[in-house]
Specification:
Layout (H helix, E strand, L loop, with lengths): L7 H11 L5 E5 L11 H10 L5 E5 L3 E2 L3 H12 L6 E3 L4 E2 L6 H12 L6 E3 L17 H6 L6 E3 L9 H9 L5 E3 L1
Parallel strand pairs: 1-2, 2-4, 3-5, 4-6, 6-7, 7-8
Helix pairs in contact: 1-2, 2-3, 3-4
């Protein structure tokens, strides 16, 4: 039998204890995972405690939910991880009432500032098509401008890859892997 999910303090202590040695943080929503039931505020605490992350994966049914400030704090925590080379939010979700520009765009902007990012699966952080501007204000385009980005997974995204977004994909000659 699996015990209760860890408290925020337990989670923070775990990540702090591993601290700079922690290179990968992969969180699956599973009753077998010690992180089952972990929320967005806990993800942020884990990111802030693990200083040298190279790989971050929040997968499989984890739900991002919180206030605009919680999304902003998560974005700031991502921005602080210049050593990240791979980020994936595969099959994670954002609560329907939280899928707003105010919540999604800061996370995409933060991802676009990570200099060593090579592999990205933005998953639930790809905004709904109606929210995506077809111009340079598109945070997805800034992500595609990443010089080190080599692999992009858009397979769980409800997105029409046409127009400006398609031009952005064509322009980045470094992207050699694409999953749609």
């Amino acid at each position: 039998p699996v015990g209760p999910a860890p408290t925020l303090i337990t989670t923070q202590r775990l990540c702090t204890a591993l601290g700079r040695r922690l290179k990968g943080l992969l969180i699956w929503k599973s009753h077998h995972s010690i992180f089952a039931g972990t929320n967005m505020e806990n993800f942020t605490v884990m990111l802030l405690a693990a200083k040298n992350l190279e790989r971050l994966g929040i997968y499989d049914g984890n739900c991002f939910d919180g206030t605009g400030e919680v999304f902003s704090k998560f974005a700031r925590a991502l921005r602080s991880h210049t050593s990240l080379v791979a980020v994936s939010f595969y099959k994670s979700t954002i609560a329907e009432d939280k899928k707003t520009e105010r919540n999604i765009f800061p996370v995409l902007e933060a991802l676009s500032t990570i200099p060593n990012l090579q592999t990205l699966g933005p998953g639930c952080f790809v905004p709904p098509q109606a929210m995506v501007p077809n111009d340079t204000n598109n945070p997805l385009l800034r992500l595609l401008d990443q010089p080190n980005l080599k692999r992009l997974r858009l397979s769980t995204c409800q997105l029409d890859v046409t127009g400006t977004l398609l031009d952005g994909l064509k322009a980045n000659q470094n992207i050699t892997g694409l999953v749609c």
